[in-house]
Amino acid sequence: MKAILLGICSSFFFAFTFVLNRSMELSGGSWLWSASLRYFFMLPFLFLIVFGRKGWQPLLEEMKQHPKQWVLWGTIGFGLFYAPICFAGAYGPGWLVSATWQITILSGSLLVPFFYEEKQTENGVIKVKGKIPMKGLFMSFIIIAGVALMQIEHATTLSLKPVLLCTIPIIIASFAYPLGNRKMMELSGKKIDVFQRVLGMTICSMPFWILLALIALFTSGAPSRTQTIQSFIIAICSGVIATLLFFQATTLVQHDMAKLSAVEATQSIQVVFVLFGEIMFLHTPLPTAISLIGILLVVVGLVLHSYITRTKRHVKVGKAPASTKRFST
């Protein structure tokens, strides 16, 4: 339950990304600056946190052992996650970007067979290939149905081109984010903590962000003061606070793929946060009765997803050992 609560808290701070990215787009800011500035601002804060916890040297040694993997998965987990999100924000409102992002719930579940999870047996703990959590996957469809219902009347007012330019990049991002996160957890294990891992991935994705910044500088000039301030807020709220909360939640359940998918499913609640954020700050119209039903479906799907995963976990670790002991000789 602690991991689920951390996931919900992270989704609140992640919501700042969609609201402020849309605000920057409406004011004429380049999506390239919106993407790169966030990670430039994140870097010094993360470094101070890790250095203050005396974790810099262990992180540096870990990065030296696997430099190529760190650059690869750091760029995929952060670069191919946030750049497409910002690109999508240039072609669709925040609610559409946030709603489409919920496909990461399915993406996270579909990635399970590509990883191994720990299982307790009579001979001790072994690693087995993960299986797609079908019950959790079904609950993910309920969440996505709620998202679709919540946005359906808005989507019908858009032409095909902006919908495709908005959704395709987010589909890419929805696989890149959990893939990069899980690969780094698999690579580093318990040798470094969540703060070190986020800093390491940020450092190793810097070549990507510098490249985007150079392209932005030559194509649209320097960022405006407003875009810089809003990017700074995103860096703190979403880049530092939300990322650390989410990574800490996934770390707590990293060896249980079903619970890991449940934590990733908590990100669906950010649709609600984004909706109210746009109402308050961007004067988006109030949700209709259909949208409210959609919000209810999202919340119900999230609760059921967490309940089923928690029940499965209790059965696995609670009753199984007694049964195993009884039949062993």
Automatic annotation (TrEMBL):
Residues that span the membrane, as ranges: 31-51, 71-92, 98-116, 136-152, 158-177, 198-220, 232-253, 265-283, 289-308
Lineage top rank: taxon: Bacteria
Keywords: Membrane, Transmembrane, Transmembrane helix
InterPro entries cross-referenced by the UniProt entry: EmrE
Protein name in the entry: Drug/metabolite transporter (DMT)-like permease
Organism: Metabacillus niabensis
